[in-house]
Amino acid sequence: MSQSVMSRRALCARGSVFVAFSGGQLRVAAAHAALPDGDAYSPWTLWNDKSIHGTPLALVAAAILAASPHNTQPWLFHVRQDSIEIYADLSRNLGAMDAFVREMHLALGCAIQNLLLAAPPNGFDADVDVVPGSLLTLHERRAPVLAATIRLARRAPRAPDSLYRAIPERHTDRYAYERSKRLPSEWGEFAAHAGVSDDVRVFLFEEGNARGQFDALVVDSTAAIVADKPMDADSLRWLRTSDDAVAKHRDGLNYGSAGLSPFMQLVAEYVPVPDSMAGGVWLSQTRDTHLATAPLTGLIAVRDRYDRQDTIAAGRTWQRLHLSATVNGIAMQPLNQPIEMIDRERETGRGTHWAMRVAGFTGPDWQATFSFRAGYSEHAASPSPRRALHDVVRV
Questions:
Q1: What is the CATH number of the domain that holds 30?
Q2: pTM: predicted TM-score of the whole model, two decimal places
């Protein structure tokens, strides 16, 4: 396939732009001006623009709003009229935080799920062909690697479902939740069976001994990451501490989405927390806010956490689960520290301590690859910055 990237000059005339199909050819179409919050946030409102509706690019515009670890957005798309190839952009890996790019592939699964939800309303049937193989033998860390191909066939557009409509409303919520407010039993039943295949299973924890052990596991693994200097440094690389950094990179984590109070957010922007103290702040927030206030936590497990197809299926499950929560007014946040420590100990040959602790929740037939919390939030979560289409689409 052609490896040429779309010309930035051709795509950047007058703010944000879209590429649309016309008469079998790609053409450039101007979109809206930058939003008051900055152009880095414009994809959240431009994803369903009329200029691309009914084209494969509309599917990509939905895909780039998916969840990803540290908001790395590690995807590239090669767009044709009858297919979309999704590549893992391995130059955007998390280093020691994601030693086997497992979390990167979870993100690709999230993007694929959004893309599949966008296909029917835009007049397509879509079938997914995920590249098989093991992440343990995927040694590339810079060049793009094909992860999946979405094959498209034209059909009459169908009415959008509730999950599709929730795509621009889904945001990671790191604020305190309402611990005493239980989630609806019907949503819990959906969550427990949200897997997109028989090779994905969801485990949920509310109260009792298992929940206490889960909380201890997350706190202990967070402390272990903070104490691991390479992991801590690779995590901090994706922290954007100024508006200029957000506008430049259009990715990563920032104070606006950190779950801070307005006062603390203002303080942090003018007096940034030193790197040496950031880990301690994260640990206390995980223990005293994220876990202490969440009425529900859970794990997404697969047969093999390093199988590429299983991992992408788990990512699709998380995106589907989070969109369903959004429809029901429920907030969610990943808490993936325990699985990140499984990867780290495997990479360094330090044993199987974390893998054994996590296996205590799933049994020998399942391997957890994602952990999370859910509840009713006291605050509305903010959208995260997003890279523009011309940064991720190839032709």
A1: 3.40.109
A2: 0.88
